[in-house]
Design goal:
Blueprint lengths: L1 H41 E2 L25 E3 L7 E5 L6 E3 L12 E3 L4 E3 L6 H4 L5 E3 L6 E3 L12 E3 L4 E3 L14 E3 L2
Parallel strand pairs: 3-5, 4-6, 5-7, 7-9, 8-10, 9-11
Antiparallel strand pairs: 1-4, 2-3
The chain binds 2-acetamido-2-deoxy-beta-D-glucopyranose (7 copies).
Length: 183
């Protein structure tokens, strides 16, 4: 009897754990999907360089890892670690929705025609940034000081924009920086 009870408890335990696991996966992908939807909204793609492959109708786990410009941790999950949409003549503004790509560490939007400012809360939107390449766009105003709070950065490229002001001197505090091209 005692034996059976502990077996039942063990089984319940396993069931509960796998249920939690499923919840975690579907929650994780919900945020990542919302991130991609929001990027899709922020960026205009007049030459249809990437949007044709961003098919949100396919809900299979891992399907969004096959979208053009999207890199995942693994092919069989939905944890996005990279967004690379360079040289596509995209228009629009910095995609604030990347905040929901919680595992993102690589963002490369170089060689487009993105305008307005680089958000001052960049480190809040993109906390695990290791690569940020916004070079050769039409970003204006100052380089936000908040970028110094992206403490994992090792490549930052912002050259060929219409940015004004000085490179925040605190950038030298980013000790992982290997590649820095600012202005
Ligand atoms: C993505 O953007 C295109 C055009 O900008 C739009 O037609 C489409 O509905 C968007 N997809 C989603 C899922 O929002
Ligand atoms: C959905 O995505 C999966 C994984 O990428 C793929 O194998 C499948 O063919 C896709 N289905 C459709 C209807 O596009
Ligand atoms: C960003 O992408 C462009 C091509 O689109 C590439 O030339 C460049 O090296 C990339 N930047 C980084 C920091 O990897
Ligand atoms: C993040 O995703 C949640 C859930 O889908 C959504 O309500 C929220 O507006 C999104 N945040 C941003 C910054 O896009
Ligand atoms: C980040 O700043 C932008 C304005 O540049 C604002 O719209 C957005 O709500 C802020 N996001 C967070 C998460 O603070
Ligand atoms: C971006 O800047 C280039 C040259 O500096 C200019 O030719 C182009 O019209 C600008 N594009 C936008 C969308 O502002
Ligand atoms: C960096 O983060 C710290 C701690 O969250 C905050 O006090 C500081 O204002 C931030 N610096 C910038 C330049 O955003």
């Amino acid at each position: 009897m005692a034996h059976n009870t502990s077996l039942v408890i063990a089984l319940l335990h396993i069931f509960a754990l796998s249920f939690l696991n499923v919840l975690e996966i579907s929650n994780g992908s919900e945020y990542d999907i919302s991130c991609l939807r929001s990027i899709n909204e922020s960026l205009e793609d007049p030459y249809n360089k990437f949007k044709h492959s961003w098919n949100f109708g396919n809900t299979t786990i891992g399907s969004m890892c096959k979208f053009i410009g999207v890199t995942c941790w693994n092919f069989d999950d939905n944890r996005i670690i990279g967004i690379e949409l360079g040289n596509m003549r995209l228009k629009g503004q910095f995609p604030l929705g990347i905040r929901n790509c919680s595992y993102l560490n690589h963002l490369n939007l170089s060689g487009n025609e993105l305008t307005c400012t680089i958000p001052s809360n960049i480190s809040y939107l993109f906390g695990y940034a290791t690569t940020l390449d916004l070079s050769s766009n039409n970003f204006s105003a100052e380089i936000p000081k908040g970028v110094v709070n992206c403490t994992y950065l090792n490549a930052l490229r912002l050259e060929n924009n219409q940015l004004t002001g000085l490179i925040p001197p605190e950038l030298v505090l980013l000790h992982r920086i290997k590649k820095l091209q600012c202005c």
